[in-house]
Amino acid sequence: MIPAQFDYLAPTTVDEALAALAEHGDDAKILAGGQSLLPVLRMRLNAPEMVIDLNKIPELRGVRDDGDHLVIGAMTRHSDIATDPQVGEHAALLQKAVHHLADEQIRHRGTFGGALAHADPAGDMGAPALALGCEFVIAGRDGVRNVAADDFFVDLFETAIGEDEILTAVRVPKHTGWGAHYEKFVRVAHQWPIVAVAAAVKVDGGTITEARVGLTNMGSTPLRARAVEDALRGQPATEDAVRDAAARAAEGANPPSDLNGDAEYRAHLATVLTRRAVLTASGV
Amino acid sequence: MTAVQEPTVEREIGRERRRKEDQRLITGRTRWTDNINLPGMLHLAMVRSPFAHAKIVSIDTTAAKDATNVVDVLTGADLGESQGACINAWAITEDQVTPPHLPMPTDRVAFAGEVVAVVVARSAAEARDAAELVDVEYEELPAALDLKEAATDAVLAHPDLGTNKSAFWKFDSAEAGTGGDVDAAIASARDGGIVIEREYRQQRLIPAFMEPRSVVVDPTGEQITVWSATQIPHILRFAIAATTGVPESKIRVIAPDVGGGFGGKLQQTPEEMIAFAVARRIGKPVKFTETRSESLMTAHHGRDQWQKLTLAADKDGKVTGLKVELLADLGAYVAIIGGGVPVLGAFMFNSIYKFPAYQFNCQTVLTNKTWTDAYRGAGRPEATYGIERMMDELAAELGEDPIEVRRRNWIDASEFPFTTVAGLEYDSGDYEKATQRAMEMLGYDELRAEQKRRRDAGDRVQLGIGVSTFTEMCGLAPSRVLGQLNYGAGGWEHASVRMLATGKVEVVTGASAHGQGHETAFSQIVADRLGVPFDDVEVLHGDTQISHKGLDTYGSRSLVVGGEALVKAVDKVIEKAKPLAAHLLEANAEDLEYVGGRFGVRGTDQGVTIQELAGAAFAAHNYPEDMEPSLDAEATYDPVNFNYPHGTHLCAVEVDTETGQVSIRKYACCDDIGNIINPLIVAGQVHGGLVQGIAQALWEEAVYDDSGTLVSGSFTDYLLPTTADTLSFEVDHTTSPSLTNTLGTKGVGEAGTIASTPAVVNAVVDAVRHLGINDIQMPCTPQRVWKAIQGAGSGGATPGAAMPHFSEDQPGQDSTEGAGA
Fold first, then answer.
1. Are A217 and A196 in contact (CB under 8 A)?
2. Which residue in A75, A127, A179, B378 has the most C-beta neighbors within 10 A?
3. Would the keyword Oxidoreductase be found if you checked this record's keyword annotation (chain B) (predicted)?
């Protein structure tokens, strides 16, 4: 498989990258880990004239502590997130989910920011990022703006990032002490999830005081199962209570139908997986 | 002359040798076709039809021809007769309807992916870029897509033929004199016996070999040399010669290292023919390597049948007759084996059982989809699936253990050789012994007890145990039998042994390996038989100029046919060496014995090794007058019979009734493949075969949309399992040596694939049968399993007992289609 011809730039700073992007406009594509872009190019589903590679920009990679947030650089590899102790302590849900993302090779190459900017509703990072209420740091020629998680995912493969902008980092509110679990349903291990559920739960004395639930592949964007979250608040962390709340998981969702399952089946799966995810996150 | 020494007889046969070919194959640092680069070589890219069925109105190549470094752009009309044709080697009936198959059609395309033009450029990238500039105007035609609909001729895949029905092939035991009248048996069973009627779907599969197909053609020498990633270099050479008019002696075909085939490279492909024609026309070497997408879309597919089965039994569960009615999807053309694939299953539906009456009917049907042909097992997995599903259904009907019901019907070990109701003579086997061993390995009784506990408790996760006792005919094939079946060639194999002056041994085989481990296994056979070190044996194959005769590799034939040819050639070498040894030792030939690679004079310490004799024959200074100075020998072996490996495969699965997810808990199998040359290679074949068969049961399916586009056209949608999805298999063997070859071996290349699919599906159905389910269509996706359970819960499915009889107004059974098809 041979991509159509393109030109290539590898800037070493975000400003250089933005300048290149401004110059080439929608003829350009940003290359992060390349795990989604390269197959698209090789299958000739897209043929940009210019590929701007962010891999030579050191400032975009790494995890740092910023008070009540962790700041994860957009070019941080999935494998970094999988092993980072700060992520494990303050944003365990990301770590739980990233272990299920594709396979080892892809996790070593693919990036956190690249996966989120790609905005595949079947991607494993969107639902946890949404559930944790991340803020997306987006740089443009006029400076940097922060976009809330709820406003970031716009549609299928579409985000709040403008054509002349670059996602540089993701600010993750610390969820220290929260239980977390990512329940992913697949037919074969290397597949995108048919449905997956990301759950972070705060349990105090056997009561769920707060819960955050994200759904993967249940609509054109990652979704937040707010009905479930509302129903869980103040409930005992028991099988019955969680089952009742989880029954509302597909409310407002618009799941796709494909070879792996139709919308009805996905809606059913969402309720089962939500129950399992919340119970596991609650330590039940 | 060597002094006396105890012959070191460490037998090679039976040793767990690591494969000598693996270093180069696994690292990829070897001669794959795509690695071959010749001076001045040009590259091809194919322009393919996006439509399943369309008239080609016009092809405008102007823009593509003007593109950078494009040498030419050619259509079917440009190549004319020089492109030859793709052949069907097996017209299964005399009146088979066979559409002409041009590599590049000129007026009409019959499936999505068919080649309509070829771009020739200086680089592969430039060829690919220019291919997008070829402007083809199509006029879409209605496409025959669904197999059952196509069988009604509602829409014609090839309008000129007037029908989609290619051939109807029938075997009837009463007519053949091998058994009774099946309709009488069924009629009788309807009155007081048991009749089981089911319809099963063999979904369409894609062989999905690891190395995409690739071809290089060099026309610059006296012979035109073709390198191709093919299983069948010899057959390909014949087909090219027969359809292009180029003398066979002017064509050299080389299959260098080939990265897997599974039957998928048992083909004479349009791309090979196009490359051959283009190279001749332009006079320069050309290369074409397909993309994975092209491979999935256009390399031949496998299976794709509807199976309508009627099994009659007496009330004690003894089968009295089996009637099989198949619809088989050929795709757009009749491929090289084509309709022969389902016919290979005709002799196997009766499997290991003593059925008194049997009838097999098969209608092959043309559609506007990718052509189908051999895929690992070819006809036999379909047959095994059908009968093994039915035997489980019979057991369920009787309320008995499925192994017990099989035991009541199978051929007892004391009854071999046994002539079956399909007319084959099984040489050897012991079904009881293999079954006992498999049951021990699985822990059958314990798992049955656990299954009962879980059922009684109404557990969310239910346990099912699937049984598959299989046999297959392998070692294709006795040439006379192939002649009777109207197959276009014989089934012999050729081998030669060349004794080099340095004592090394070159073995040439007509079997063309594509990952099976021939080099290792054949070296072991020769090392033992000839008494030379394993490392001194070099196996040559896959080049028609070196291996001038051969019928290649498929149908589990290489060892049992090719290996036997090798044994005969080695024996000839020893026979030829004997007079030379006697001459040099100044002894009587009758006093010589050949042990461990050395002729010794009985009762003395005098002797001479085969290596010394090879040197003496080479020098030719001193040899008997009536002898030619050479030890080299060759042999062509035509098998006297097929051989019949068998085995018992048991699979335990867990089914999550809440999601429909199936996970395999344990898999145990005991195969009887006769004597084993290399246990490690056998284990590899069995493991790989199992995964491939399990994948049919659970994961793989080629799906087309309503317009005839392959939806599962990438590995994102065509689900191949990886190691992460499998488990450690419990594999063991019983040994009933084959009586039809010297080595006592039986084929193993397809066994795992044939046996495992029904074992898994039987297990899945067994796990949920108590919920009122008697079938789930393959692949048993979580959604299908879940919907079957939902349907059963709401009274949607009918439990086993009262299945309706087949009739015209009631085609099919809800049991297969209702399960979330």
1. yes
2. A127
3. yes
Number of domains in chain B: 1
pLDDT tens by residue, A194-224: 999 999 999 999 999 999 999 999 999 999 9
Listed in sequence order, the residues at least 6 apart from B60 whose beta carbon sits closer than 8 Å to its beta carbon are B134, B135, B136, B137
Q: Does B273 map to a domain?
A: no
Q: Which CA distances in Å does B106 have to B75, B79, B134, B138, B159?
A: 7, 10, 15, 12, 15
In this structure, are strands B224-228 and B251-254 parallel, antiparallel, or unpaired?
parallel
Distance (Å) from the C-alpha of residue A101 to the closest C-alpha of chain B?
Answer: 14
- The partner residue sitting opposite B659, judged by closest CB among A4, A258, A269, is A269
- Chain B residues in contact with A259 (beta carbon < 8 A): 701, 703, 711-712, 717
Q: Decide: B451 and B465 in contact? Cβ < 8 Å.
A: yes
> Do residue A1 and residue B293 have CB atoms under 8 angstroms apart?
yes
Closest Cα of chain A to B277: distance in Å? 24
Task: Name the residue range of residue B589's domain.
Answer: 22-28+492-637
Query: Tokens 């389910």 identify what position?
Result: B773
Are A43 and B293 inside 8 Å of each other by CB? yes
Q: Does B725 touch chain A (CB under 8 A)?
A: yes
Does residue A268 sit at the B interface (CB-CB below 8 Å)? yes
CATH of residue B549: 3.30.365.10
Q: Which of residues 125-144 of B touch A (CB under 8 A)?
A: 125, 128-129, 132
B195, B319 Cβ separation under 8 angstroms: no
A111 in reach of chain B (CB within 8 A): no
Does B703 touch chain A if contact means CB atoms closer than 8 Å? yes
Q: Would you say how long chain A is, in residues?
A: 284
Q: Tell me if the pTM is above 0.90.
A: yes
Minimal CA separation from B689 to chain A, in Å? 18
A189 contacts B724? CB cut-off 8 A: yes
Which whole number is the average pLDDT over B357-364? 98
Both tokens of B413, joined, read 């070990």
Q: Is residue B530 part of a domain?
A: yes
- For B131, which residue in chain A has the nearest alpha carbon? A4
On whether any CB of chain B is under 8 Å from the CB of A192, the answer is yes
Give the per-residue pLDDT at B556.
84
The CA distance from A170 to the nearest CA of chain B, in Å, is 29
Encode pLDDT of B449-486 as tens digits: 999 999 999 999 999 999 999 999 988 889 999 999 99
Q: Is residue B389 part of a domain?
A: no
The C-alpha of B91 sits at a distance from chain A's nearest C-alpha, in angstroms, of 36
User: B70-75 and B165-172 as β-strands: parallel, antiparallel, unpaired?
Assistant: unpaired
Parallel, antiparallel, or unpaired for β A7-9 and A50-53? Answer: parallel
Is the Cα torsion angle B804, B806, B810, B812 positive or negative in sign?
Answer: positive
For chain B, say whether A269 makes contact (Cβ under 8 Å): yes
Q: Residue B610 falls within a domain, yes or no?
A: yes
| Domains, chain A | 7-53 (3.30.43.10), 61-173 (3.30.465.10), 179-281 (3.30.390.50)
The tokens describing A156, both together, are 């299928």
**Backbone φ, ψ for residue A222 (5° rounding):** -60, 145
